[in-house]
């Protein structure tokens, strides 16, 4: 303790007053020289130029800054010192008043200096000060103008900063000087301290890509106070009150004075606390942050500066003056000149490097410049500061967090439902909430081990080639394209110890070239729409078992696919993005629970007999207009999708007024064929969706079993796919490709009507979960589910299913594989079904069935709450037509006529026609 | 009162001053000091007026009172001193100056306008969602050119 005191006393070899005096002199002198490189008509630019290309001036700027900050600290200590020694009693009353006003001017001089650097912090601080000054009654406006002038000019603040405020301070100091002047050694020591600090630490400048905006540190407390007060007038009053209190001190009696000083000390202490709070614990938009947390690490300011010493004295290995770009505002370009591969919108010469990769653009020192750099700016964890900054794509970076591709709400919701952790599949979730969670439930662990690597928020940590396994990466997941050159440059750079001679000069491109391969990594699982679309069906074969027929394909992850048949749109050269719009893929800001809600495109948008509405280019929303521009579309107007209303940017009309779809990547013109008559006959198939008929096949997987295994190796997909021991393991059952079952989705329209739609259905989960393996005390021991999911398998063919493939097919009707026969005996007919599969003990239904033959099911039936198999009445209706089809071919006159007037046809049957008698006991299913 | 008037009065003042200065040399010492005080007073007034004029002119040449935008995109967009919000055919123009302390609002968070300085939040129609601000953002008057479709926004005219 005594040692501490001794050193402390040793450090205080002069008074606080003398220290502040010395600092003020240093500050003013450095300021005078700094006025030469500083350009008041472009303050921000000139500060950047000073920091980048003028190291001596940068040092002076730092010196100016640090001496000013230290001056403020010692100035306050000096006041304190004086109060405790009753110093206010020793000066004349007149001078005391002037000194009190000087406090205001000290802060004004400091703040105007802060404003003069002209960055985002400064501009806002100026607006606030302006507003506060105008709050002063009567003379407010005039004062605001007198001290700050008007935006955007800096002339008046500059004049005030260098002339009035400084002059005033000099006068005050001069008054002081009768009694107090800094000794030479005090001056020298202060110069040494500030000089070294100026070498090591840069004066702050707002990081242009950081949304955190803060005033100077000594006003962070005030900012905090202002945050809590709706009427800022109070804070003005508070400041005036404190100054008045100080002014009145000499007029008070000794005991009163002591009391007031206590109040002042208390307020100073509180203010200090508020300052610390504001400085460390407030982030973007003055929200609370925890400074040591990774995602809150941004302070809004570029601070590093140790490199200045290196550049001033040691010289770097590069002489950056030679590479100094004429208009460069970033130090990065001095090494990374001539970087190629980016489109004009992302050209580093116009937007710089740091707008995406962060780091410190205001230095040419490699170490400093690379501090806080981001290698993959597209990762959603960084996107708000990189791709999503206010000047670039802020709306997208906001809304993309809500899309299903980021939230996985549907996947999580269904999984929780299946694990009996939620009563329905419609809960709302976000995968990032699981990432932060400590104790995970059974389903959450299941998701962690097996499912959640496919989301946009999954971070990439190094440059990657696009493969059929690529996942995550945020914006880069879709918009980044490496080519051979970028990849070879990158890999040799990373392998070669990152030597500067290997510095990559080719940047992967950022564009709207979003190929099917970009989607494949994630969409080749579960519903498997990506491989389906290209015609591939997953098998359980191993690579070694593949016969050499060319009809097999092995993915990077070892899964083997066999060729079935491709989607007609794929056959014609269409890519995913030819149908799916930016709002579907990046979201429209709303949070959806299931994919079919987020996807708006419908077959009828293009394949229609109706006439399209056209929207002029001028009326397009910002995003579509930009897309039209980037895709170099010439048209002045675009048709709108009939159902979705989306502008169809890639559709145009030819000279015969025929609409053509122009594929975005392959550049083919495709006719948009209208539906055939059968599709649009309202009476018969009104509720049947296009895909219910036109889907050729869908993958289905049944009989899978899930078990938690303490010795199994798995993954922690919530945290960078770390391998873990102990994992859920999935044992798959049977996989097949066949025309899908059909189910009924019900919805209430906005007008309150019930709307039915028949959609393809695939076995979402016919599975068992061994809950006791995970938690021996769980009250479910074995969970069994038989749930189908509505699907859009993306295996469309031009020709629809033929009538019998639905009306007479047990699989289409949801009974599963087997034989469905119409038995006629005498005048009675009835349907008979024998399943190929044995029944499951849990529910008495065949393994692959969705519903029982002419039965209905209770309890959960699908992975949606509004999707179900055909009910008995619907099954009967379908099978009645099926009975007709057993004799009449589907093209026969009578069957064709029945499409438009079914009831009428039924009313005059020939005597040979025997329809099933649904009331007869023999038609009722027998209990087997 | 026009500029000419001031110029004229300033000239007359100077002539008076010269005249009085010559006359004053005949006055005794004490009277002379008082005389100069009065004279200073008389002279200061027109000087202040001329200074005021000079400042006003500078101001007039600097200040911007309207902003012209070629088009207003769908949704919320920021154009310096103004924020435009378009929903279909409906357009609303707000001043971007936060009603709390005048910070410029230039970003949104979850569809709300957000002030970076003390955390106020406003909805798309400018009303306050979260303090400290307690007044809605100012709606600004604008005009659309029927031919070019161009928008002229008047910064000093509220709706
Ligand atoms: S200025 Fe907007 S919240 Fe204070």
Number of DSSP strand runs of chain A:
22
Q: Helical element count of chain B?
A: 2
Q: Regarding quaternary structure, how should these chains be classified?
A: heterodimer
Assign an overall shape of chain B: elongated
In which order are the strands of the major sheet of chain B placed? 5-6-7-8
Fourth CATH level, the homologous superfamily of the largest domain in chain B = Rieske [2Fe-2S] iron-sulphur domain
Would you mind describing this structure in some detail?
The complex is a heterodimer of chains A (928) and B (159). Chain A is α+β, with helices and mostly antiparallel strands. Chain A is built from 41 helices and 22 strands. In chain A, the strands form 8 sheets. In chain A, strands 14, 15, 17, 18, 19 and 22 form a 6-stranded mixed beta sheet that branches. Chain A has a 3-stranded antiparallel beta sheet with strand order 5-7-6. In chain A, strands 10-11-12 form a 3-stranded antiparallel beta sheet, with no helix packed on it. In chain A, a hairpin with a 5-residue loop joins strand 10 and strand 11. In chain A, helix 6 packs antiparallel against helix 7. Chain A starts with a helix and ends in a 21-residue tail after the last helix. Mean pLDDT of chain A is 85; it is low at 316-327. Chain B has helices at 3-24, 29-62; strands at 66-69, 75-79, 82-87, 90-95, 107-109, 112-114, 121-122, 128-130, 140-144, 151-158. In chain B, the strands form 3 sheets. A 4-stranded antiparallel beta sheet of chain B has the order 5-6-7-8, with no helix packed on it. The longest helix of chain B has 34 residues, at 29-62. The interface between A and B is medium-sized, with 35 and 34 residues. The complex binds FE2/S2 (inorganic) cluster. FE2/S2 (inorganic) cluster is lined by residues 98, 100-103, 115, 117-120, 132-133 of chain B.
């Amino acid at each position: 303790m005594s040692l501490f005191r001794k050193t402390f006393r040793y450090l205080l070899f002069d008074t606080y007053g003398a220290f502040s005096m010395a600092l003020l002199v240093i500050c003013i002198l450095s300021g005078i020289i700094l006025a030469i490189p500083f350009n008041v008509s472009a303050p921000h630019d000139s500060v950047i130029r000073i920091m980048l290309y003028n190291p001596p001036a940068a040092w002076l700027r730092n010196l100016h800054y640090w001496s000013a900050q230290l001056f403020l600290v010692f100035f306050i200590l000096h006041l304190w010192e004086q109060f405790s020694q009753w110093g206010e009693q020793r000066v004349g009353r007149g001078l005391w008043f002037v000194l009190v006003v000087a406090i205001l001017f000290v802060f004004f001089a400091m703040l105007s200096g802060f404003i003069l650097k002209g960055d985002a912090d400064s501009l806002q601080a100026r607006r606030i000060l302006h507003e506060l000054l105008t709050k002063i009654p009567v003379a407010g406006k005039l004062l605001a103008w007198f001290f700050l002038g008007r935006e955007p000019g800096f002339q008046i603040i500059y004049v005030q900063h260098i002339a009035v405020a400084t002059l005033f301070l000099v006068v005050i100091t001069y008054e002081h000087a009768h009694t107090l002047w800094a000794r030479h050694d005090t001056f020298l020591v202060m110069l040494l301290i500030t000089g070294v600090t100026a070498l090591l630490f840069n004066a702050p400048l707002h990081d242009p890509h950081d949304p955190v905006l803060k005033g100077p540190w000594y006003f962070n407390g005030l900012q905090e106070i202002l945050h809590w007060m709706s009427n800022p007038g109070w804070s003005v009053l508070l400041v005036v009150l404190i100054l008045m209190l100080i002014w009145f001190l000499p007029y008070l009696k000794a005991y009163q004075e002591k009391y007031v000083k206590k109040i002042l000390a208390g307020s100073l202490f509180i203010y200090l606390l508020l300052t610390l709070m504001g400085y460390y614990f407030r982030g973007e938009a003055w929200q609370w942050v925890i400074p040591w947390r990774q995602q809150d690490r941004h302070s809004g300011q570029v601070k590093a500066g140790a490199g200045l010493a290196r550049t001033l004295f040691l010289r770097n290995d590069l002489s950056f003056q030679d590479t100094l770009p004429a208009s460069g505002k970033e130090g990065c370009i001095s090494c990374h000149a001539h970087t190629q591969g980016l489109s004009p919108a992302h050209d580093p010469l116009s937007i710089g490097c740091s707008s995406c990769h962060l780091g410190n653009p205001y230095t040419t020192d490699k170490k400093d410049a690379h501090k806080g750099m981001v290698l993959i700016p597209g990762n959603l964890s960084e996107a708000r500061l990189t791709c999503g900054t206010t000047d670039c794509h802020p709306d997208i970076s906001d809304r993309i967090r809500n899309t299903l591709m980021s939230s996985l709400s549907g996947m999580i919701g269904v999984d929780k439902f299946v694990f009996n952790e939620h009563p329905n599949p419609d809960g709302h979730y976000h995968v990032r909430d699981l990432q932060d969670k400590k104790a995970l439930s059974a389903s959450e662990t299941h998701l962690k081990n097996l499912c959640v690597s496919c989301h946009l928020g999954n971070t990439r940590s190094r440059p990657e080639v696009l493969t059929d396994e690529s996942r995550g990466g945020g914006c880069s997941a879709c918009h980044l394209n490496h080519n051979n050159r970028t990849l070879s440059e990158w890999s040799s750079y990373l392998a070669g110890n990152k030597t500067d001679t290997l510095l990559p000069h080719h940047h992967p491109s950022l564009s709207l070239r979003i190929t099917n391969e970009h989607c494949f990594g994630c969409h080749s699982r579960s519903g498997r729409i990506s491989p389906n679309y290209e015609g591939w069906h997953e098998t359980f074969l191993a690579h070694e078992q593949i016969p050499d027929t060319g009809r097999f394909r092995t993915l990077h992850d070892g899964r083997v696919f066999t060729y079935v048949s491709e989607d007609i749109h794929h056959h014609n050269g269409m890519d995913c993005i030819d149908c799916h719009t930016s709002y579907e893929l990046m979201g429209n800001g709303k949070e959806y629970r299931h994919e079919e809600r987020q996807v708006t495109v419908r077959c009828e948008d293009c394949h229609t007999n109706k006439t399209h509405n056209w929207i002029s280019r001028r009326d397009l929303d910002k995003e579509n207009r930009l897309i039209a521009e980037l895709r170099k579309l010439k048209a002045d107007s675009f048709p709108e999708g009939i159902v979705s209303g989306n502008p169809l940017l890639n559709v145009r009309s030819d000279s015969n007024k025929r609409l053509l779809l122009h594929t975005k990547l392959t550049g083919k013109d495709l006719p948009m064929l209208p539906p055939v008559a059968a599709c649009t006959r309202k009476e018969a198939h009104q509720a049947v969706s296009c895909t219910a008929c036109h889907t050729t096949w869908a993958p289905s997987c049944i009989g899978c079993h899930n078990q938690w295994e303490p010795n199994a190796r798995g993954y922690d997909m919530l945290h960078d796919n770390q391998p873990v021991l102990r994992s859920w393991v999935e044992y798959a059952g049977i996989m097949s490709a066949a025309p899908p079952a059909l189910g009924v989705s019900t919805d209430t329209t906005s007008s309150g009507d019930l709307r039915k739609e028949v959609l393809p259905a695939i076995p979402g989960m016919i599975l068992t979960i061994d809950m006791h393996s995970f938690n021996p005390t769980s009250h479910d021991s074995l969970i069994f589910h038989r749930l189908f999911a509505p699907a859009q398998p993306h295996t469309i063919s031009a020709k629809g299913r033929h009538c019998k493939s639905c009306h007479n097919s047990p699989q289409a009707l949801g009974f599963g594989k087997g034989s469905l026969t119409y038995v006629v005996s005498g005048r009675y007919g009835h349907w008979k079904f024998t399943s190929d599969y044995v029944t499951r003990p849990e529910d008495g239904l065949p393994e692959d069935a969705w519903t029982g033959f002419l039965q209905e099911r209770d309890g959960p039936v699908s992975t949606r709450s509004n999707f179900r198999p055909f009910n008995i009445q619907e099954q009967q209706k379908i099978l009645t037509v099926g009975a007709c089809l057993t004799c009449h071919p589907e093209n026969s006159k009578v069957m064709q006529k029945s499409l438009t007037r079914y009831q009428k046809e039924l009313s005059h049957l020939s005597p040979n026609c025997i329809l099933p008698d649904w009331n007869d006991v023999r038609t009722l299913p027998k209990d087997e | 009162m026009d500029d000419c008037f001031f110029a004229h009065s300033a000239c007359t003042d100077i002539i008076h001053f010269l005249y009085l200065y010559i006359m004053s040399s005949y006055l005794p010492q004490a009277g002379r000091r008082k005389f100069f005080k009065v004279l200073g007073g008389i002279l200061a007034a027109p000087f202040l007026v001329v200074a005021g004029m000079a400042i006003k002119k500078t101001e007039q040449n600097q200040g911007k009172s309207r902003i012209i935008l070629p088009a207003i995109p769908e949704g919320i967009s920021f154009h310096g001193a103004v924020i435009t919000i378009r929903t279909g055919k409906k357009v609303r123009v707000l001043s971007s100056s936060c009603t709390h302390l005048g910070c410029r609002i230039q970003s949104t968070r979850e569809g709300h306008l957000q002030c970076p300085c003390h955390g106020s939040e406003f909805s798309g129609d400018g009303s306050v969602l979260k303090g400290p601000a307690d007044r809605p953002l100012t709606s600004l008057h604008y005009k659309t050119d029927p031919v070019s479709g161009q928008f002229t926004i008047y910064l000093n005219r509220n709706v």
